[in-house]
């Protein structure tokens, strides 16, 4: 998987989902939008799925737990994401860990990171679908 992840990092995709040796979903959308698209199109649970994500904050970690993902590979992830991966027993590899995922102008926490604080995967998913 490490070689596939390195290829993903060089690609223009923001998200890839794998099941076994097969890519089952790709998205160029930023943030958690790609994962939400997958959940909305493919259903909610896909045990054994492996997620490649350019930015893996706590929001992405909670959606990975919601999907019952097996592993998450991220180019960058937050300390909150690391805690969530451990809590929900998801194997993870982050090329770089940062204290927080910030918003685009780097003045505050990413809105999705903020929204995910103190929520279970189910609570966070319900917040997202109720917003949309």
How many beta strands in the DSSP annotation? 6
Low-confidence stretches: none
- Helix-strand pattern, N to C? HEEHEHEHEEHH
What Rg, in angstroms, do the CA atoms define?
13 Å
Q: How much of the sequence is in beta strands?
A: 15-25%
Shape: globular
Percent helix, as a range, is: 40-55%
- Kindly name the structural category: alpha/beta
Biggest sheet record: 6 strands, mixed
- How far apart, in Å, are the first and last alpha carbons? 33 Å
Taking all residues together, what is the mean pLDDT? 94
Tally of separate helices: 6
Overall description:
The chain has 132 residues and is of the alpha/beta class. Helices cover 41% and strands 24% of the residues. The chain is built from 6 helices and 6 strands, in the order αββαβαβαββαα. It has helices at residues 2-10, 33-42, 58-66, 79-87, 111-116, 121-131, and strands at residues 15-19, 22-27, 50-56, 71-78, 91-94, 97-98. Strands 1, 2, 3, 4, 5 and 6 form a 6-stranded mixed sheet that branches. Helix 3 packs parallel to helix 4 and helix 3 (58-66) crosses helix 6. The longest helix has 11 residues, at 121-131.
Name some characteristics of this structure.
alpha/beta, globular
In short:
This protein is of the alpha/beta class.
């Amino acid at each position: 998987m490490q070689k596939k992840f390195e290829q993903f990092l060089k690609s223009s995709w923001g998200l890839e989902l794998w099941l076994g040796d097969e890519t089952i979903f790709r998205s160029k959308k930023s943030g958690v939008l790609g994962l939400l698209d997958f959940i909305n199109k493919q259903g909610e649970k896909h045990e054994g799925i492996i997620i490649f994500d350019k930015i893996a904050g706590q929001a992405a970690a909670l959606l990975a737990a919601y999907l019952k993902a097996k592993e998450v590979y991220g180019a960058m992830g937050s300390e909150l994401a690391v805690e969530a991966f451990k809590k929900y027993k998801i194997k993870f590899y982050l090329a770089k860990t940062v204290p927080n995922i910030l918003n685009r102008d780097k003045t505050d926490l990413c809105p999705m990171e903020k929204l995910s604080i103190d929520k279970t995967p189910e609570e966070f998913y319900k917040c997202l679908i109720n917003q949309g």
